[in-house]
Structures are given as structure tokens and as C-alpha cells.
Amino acid sequence: MSSAWIDDRIDKIYSRVKHKVSDALKSDYPDLNFTQDDSENTSARFPTVYMFFDTAERLTTLDGGAINGVYMAVRTKVSVTKTQGNDAAREVNAAVRDELVNLGFRASGSPIPTVSGDVKVINSNYQRMVGYNDPF
Fold this sequence. Notes:
By secondary structure, this protein is an alpha+beta fold. 29% of the residues lie in helices and 38% in strands. The chain has one domain (4-131): Alpha-Beta Plaits, CATH 3.30.70.
């Protein structure tokens, strides 16, 4: 068993959150942008949800030959313009949180709001164990 399944789970989680949240908020935020790229080389679109995934091996087969469970942390960053306001940031962040919770993730700490120039950002962290057989 290779560890390619971990990348597959990341892709499935990202895709599910992106589609569910985009569908739920499309009337209020038709240009809602999701990305895993925090590069400064891309043009900014607002609101934007950045999703970052980090994993750590936690469970292996008895012989130690294959990973069959990982601790997965998801960091999200919801960015809106000041003119879109706090309500927009909170609404998008809540929709992302609700979908991650539906997938079994738990929030780790409170969302952290910040302002940088004309951009408001809410950073949040989520975590859960993900197994080889977990369906997403």
C-alpha cells in the first residue's frame, strides 16, 4: 500500500468543501474563490478561501510497511476586502467550518481575525485522524 491515498483524501476533502460551500453561498458570493496556492504571483480575488493541509503519520500496518492512518490538520484563511466587511468574512468562514465539521474535523482554537491593509482575514485550524478506509 503506497501513501498516495493521503493525497487522494486531501483532494477529496478540498473538492467537497469547495463545491458544498460555493453552492451554498453562490447567491451572495458568486465570485467566491477557493485555492491551495497562497502565491503572491496570482491576482487577488475576493472573497477567497485558502486551504492548507498538513499530515503526520500515526498508524501503520503491523509490519510497519505501510501508512494506514494520518493525523490531518487543515488551516483555512478567509480573505475579504474591507468593503465586503466583517459579516462576509464570518459568513464564509462559518460555511467552511460547518462543512469541515460535517467531515469529522474539530476546530482547534477560535478563529483569528486580522486586518492587513484593505484586506480582512480570518484564520482557522481544524484537525482529525484520517484512515486509509475513510470515505470522503
